[in-house]
Amino acid sequence: MNVALIFAGGVGSRMGLKTPKQFLKINGVPIIVLTLMNFQNHKDIDGICVVTLKEYIDYVKDLVKEYKLDKVVSVVSGGKTGQDSIYNGLCEISKKYAKDTTVLIHDGVRPIITNKVISDNIEAVKKYGNAITCKQCIETIITIKNQTQVDEVIDRANSLTAQAPQSFILSEILEAHEKMRKDNPNYDGVIDSCTLMRLNGKELHTIMGNVDNLKVTTKNDYLSVKAIVENQDIECE
User: In a 10 Å sphere around its CB, with 0-12 CB exposed, 13-18 middle and 19+ buried, how is residue 203 labelled?
Assistant: First the structure.
């Protein structure tokens, strides 16, 4: 089985808005719905679990009904951090699906993801046991010291930017979370699922994502995603 875990528990503080960014609309449709539709419409996705803010659970359930997202099997409350939210989603999925289920962990505010990227994630998990969606770096990457001094220029040819989905076998990602919660309950230093699994000694494998698989974090991100979606004339029925 292949299940998408969509986490949408952010409050959008960096955008300075009252409405959480996942509920901002493009073409009259909330971003979270645009994201969910990509997984709803993929032939190999068997179920979807959404993790969101507690006070928005009923609203998300209403959206699920309105847009006929019948692959959504659960809408659960998020936690204090993004990793807490993902853990809550994984626990919910483990109640409904087998341990060898493939889980695709994806941001609720990354609405532009192709069928191919979803398929490539599923195939990579079958082959390697995991998949980290990435894109090639096109800018020069440097590290600094003393706040402003260039320390090192990184070889761009061997550098990728990790995106989403990040996909794993359910039992393995859940085990990694449970171990981390014992040793580091606040997930200090854990940026994403990729980081979590590396800290647990896992060998990870990459797949290349679509270049416009943007995450809405700032107002500029929203405007960029809005322009791409409108240009694609995405329909939501």
Answer: exposed
